[in-house]
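Severity: low
Component: inverse-folding endpoint
Summary: output formatting inconsistent between runs
Steps to reproduce: submit the following structure tokens with default settings.
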């Protein structure tokens, strides 16, 4: 399939197929699906904030179709530009040739090419499940560089865990490719919007949660009310299906200055908890980028 055919298939698509994230309910193994609890994703509070500008959709083209594989966060360190995401989002692609596509309404779409898998490590640490993708600076218009987070947008100091939090990402069905399509090696407007969901920092019992380390991870539970996210269009989705596509999403503290506190790397289906890796846990790595 040549590039023009690829563009045509992407722009005609009405639904982006999502590959389900890993790390589900690792403490219980195989079990019966719990009763469905509906989650509410909204296009509300963060609509014009730093969280929306920095959140991008990650897709891949294997030659047989274009797939949504997760969410990423734009980050700038010194003069270099990166996309932070969960390592398992891109790790599953290492054995196949593909085009990696980064897309959002604020910065448009960027096709990194088939060699993108050589531009990032598979993982910083196995228990962190975090990786980065380097974006060549020459591919980013100066007008779009402000969408990348800097050190001041990250929560890099110890904190009590109190506050209001939003999970911002691209759940399956929440993103539709724009009409203008994509172009090789550059940015082009693509009308996709990140959605948000209100979450609460979890302070309960963590015994039996496989892979959880309180020094490295934060846990969040789902809010039943719609306080922070009450403005703007919203969609109701079932659990856990409503979390497909959000691996690599940011959890943002929205009291005062909006700051990124962690990156979503999994969830525990039985306990209905979101697992995320602390930004503080990868502070030294980010400073070396």
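Observed output (run 2 of 3):
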């Amino acid at each position: 399939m040549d590039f023009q055919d690829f563009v045509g298939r992407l722009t005609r698509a009405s639904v982006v197929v999502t590959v389900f994230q890993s790390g589900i309910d690792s403490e219980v193994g195989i079990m019966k699906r719990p009763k469905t609890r509906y989650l509410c994703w909204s296009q509300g509070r963060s609509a014009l904030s730093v969280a929306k500008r920095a959140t991008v959709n990650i897709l891949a083209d294997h030659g047989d179709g274009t797939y949504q594989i997760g969410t990423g966060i734009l980050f700038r360190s010194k003069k270099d530009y990166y996309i932070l995401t969960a390592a398992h989002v891109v790790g599953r692609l290492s054995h196949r040739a593909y085009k990696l596509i980064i897309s959002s309404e604020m910065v448009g779409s960027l096709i990194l090419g088939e060699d993108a898998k050589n531009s990032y490590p598979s993982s910083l640490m196995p228990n962190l499940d975090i990786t980065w993708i380097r974006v060549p600076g020459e591919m980013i218009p100066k007008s779009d560089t402000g969408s990348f987070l800097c050190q001041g947008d990250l929560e890099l100091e110890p904190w009590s865990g109190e506050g209001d939090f939003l999970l911002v990402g691209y759940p399956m069905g929440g993103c539709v490719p724009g009409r203008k399509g994509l172009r090789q090696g550059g940015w082009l407007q693509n009308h996709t919007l990140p959605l948000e969901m209100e979450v609460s920092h979890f302070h309960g019992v963590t015994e039996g949660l496989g892979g959880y380390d309180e020094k490295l991870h934060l846990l969040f539970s789902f809010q039943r009310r719609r306080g922070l996210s009450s403005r703007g269009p919203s969609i109701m989705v079932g659990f856990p299906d409503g979390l497909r596509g959000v691996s690599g999403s940011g959890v943002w503290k929205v009291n005062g200055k909006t700051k990124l506190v962690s990156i979503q790397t999994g969830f525990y289906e039985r306990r209905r908890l979101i697992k995320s890796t602390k930004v503080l846990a990868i502070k030294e790595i980010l400073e070396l980028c």
